[in-house]
Amino acid sequence: MIEIRNLSRLYDGLAVVDDVSLTVETGQLAVLVGTSGSGKTTLLRMINRLVQPSSGQVLIDGVDTATLPAHLLRRRIGYAIQGHGLFPHRSVAQNIATVPRLLGWPRRQIDARVDELLALFQLDPAAFRGRMPHQLSGGQAQRVGVARALAAKPDLLLMDEPFGALDPLIRAKAQDDLRQIQRQLGTTLILVTHDMTEAVDLGDRIAVMDGGKLLQYDAPARILTDPATPFVRDLIGTADRALRLLSLARVGDIAAPGQAEGPAIAPGASLRDALAECLWSGRDALPVEGGGIVTLNALRAKARPR
């Protein structure tokens, strides 16, 4: 569990981060979102003390991080940045092995971990282990960057705009991969983005920041349906709130008994995907793989705040 208590950072007397407190439970994915200059990246960097707090505390599993040597703290926390940040003169395997090597892992254990992570990110170890960063596509390089951050099996992973440099198709795939792997590994993850859609799609909790202050820290559905301030309301926008709400739930959550014609939809598909299929195919109900149906009326009901 990560506890941020009354954390502030001043530059020339001005608060870039102003008395922020929040808690990220073990295994959660929390997203820090806000416009440029809102303080979200500074807040993230104070967690691993790349930026020293002016006041306040960061506790990881009850331990004040200020009591730990900074270099040892950072080896316990995975960190991934926009543009992957790979060492250009090191191979994929050498990049991923960076922190385990610093920690003194045996060579056999390092090699096994490199291959495990490459396979996890759907990169064939035999094909990618020896490649250099310039031989990777943007999406492949980003996956290697995240694999490197996870190499030492950290309990906490920090990510700063990790997908900002990717094109939309690769970005969507990278987001899906990250969420799947985060759930599989149970890693606690804090991610910075300026993209509210990305925050809603990925986050278990969303922290909205502006001017260094934390305006709201809540579940995505609550952020969408009950914004705490006019700034939060403007940030999420009003045009596609219903679609964002539908993206938070899965077809299997609302499948009901019945039968319907046409191709079936997977129970793990989002309600947004189901609505799109209903509208595209002109159907009022879709069969669900494994049994049951999802209806257009049920989708409409889910698209409205309660």
Automatic annotation (TrEMBL):
Family: Belongs to the ABC transporter superfamily.
InterPro entries named among the record's database cross-references: AAA+_ATPase (IPR003593), ABC_transporter-like_ATP-bd (IPR003439), ABC_transporter-like_CS (IPR017871), P-loop_NTPase (IPR027417)
Keyword Lyase recorded: no
Residue stretches making up the ABC transporter domain: 2-236
Tagged with keyword Disulfide bond: no
Keywords, in A-Z order: ATP-binding, Nucleotide-binding, Transport
Protein name: ABC transporter ATP-binding protein
Family annotation (Pfam families): ABC_tran (PF00005)
